[in-house]
Amino acid sequence: MKGFLFFFAKRYIAGTDKLDAIEAARRLNALNISAAIDNLGENVRNASGAQAPVTEYLGLLDEIKKSGVDSVVSLKLTHLGLDISEELAAENAGVIVKKAQEYGNFVWFDMESSAYTERTVDILLALRKQYPNVGVAVQSCLFRSAGDVKRLIEHRAAVRLVKGAYREPPEIAFKDKKDVDANFSLLMRELLLKGSRTAVATHDTALIEEAIRFAKENNISKERFEFQLLFGIKRTLQKRLASEGYRVRVYIPYGAEWLPYTLRRLGERKENWIFVLKNIFD
Ligand SMILES: Cc1cc2nc3c(=O)[nH]c(=O)nc-3n(C[C@H](O)[C@H](O)[C@H](O)COP(=O)(O)OP(=O)(O)OC[C@H]3O[C@@H](n4cnc5c(N)ncnc54)[C@H](O)[C@@H]3O)c2cc1C
Predict the structure, then answer these.
(1) Ligand 1: distance of its center to the CA of 180 in Å?
(2) Which ligand 1 atom is the nearest neighbour of the CA of 76?
(3) Range of the domain at 27
(4) If DSSP states are collapsed to H, E and C, what string results for 88-103?
């Protein structure tokens, strides 16, 4: 089954090696699109397992520098040991962020399920005291995100606004898609007006058009924000936005641990699973 799903994973991931991701970044760069490369992995349960991604990210930063591609990196704190301890994840992230700073590069922290939100923001803000080259994703599905956005704006931290890819309980999250979208719109406007570095990370064309309109109405220049999209999704839109002079960054995942990421992507649209099932029974 895993082998079969890899066929579908290939739509969403660049490959299993960092050089696959570098090559994908190079192709996107040729279209005026920047990259954010992510080494896939999450929920590591022992300290030695959390060391391997640190080594991988340091090598990735070397390769980005050596190849000259226009790319930052993106990571998950549970890949770096957040399930073991906050200290371990912060220490491991610090090693990567420090090296990125030496290279003039930037690190995005992905946001995982709500069990990690508080600790992810805390680690980010602690690291930012020493390293300003780090930002974090915030999910519009969570009730708490308005408070997180406010806190992050106060600290002038970079924010990547997303809808949220994890199943969350109704006590803490909007369940209705239209509420998630409305909250995205609200937080997006706040970030565009007051944020220091805002990434509008969605494939939702209505929200993208709204961001463009809102930026024009409020004289927010194209340099003050960027659109971020995922590798393999809405490629025509990625190219169109870049050709219109907007900053566009594509998130490029790679690595052997591609299954959880692929399952999240497939789960985002019922058409994706219909496509998979059709291929099983074809
Ligand atoms: C750059 C980037 C980084 C992200 N980082 C995080 C993160 O750190 N934490 C987190 O929880 N989530 C993250 N996400 C995922 C995000 O939370 C959503 O789950 C995902 O983007 C789908 O929502 P949407 O905003 O595209 O809107 P939707 O309303 O879900 O989708 C809009 C349209 O996009 C297309 N589309 C969306 N998803 C797919 C898909 N999987 N396959 C094919 N077409 C699709 C469809 O045409 C759909 O109608 C990230 C997303 C992006 C773009």
Answers:
(1) 12
(2) 8
(3) 2-281
(4) HHHHHHHHHHHHHHHC
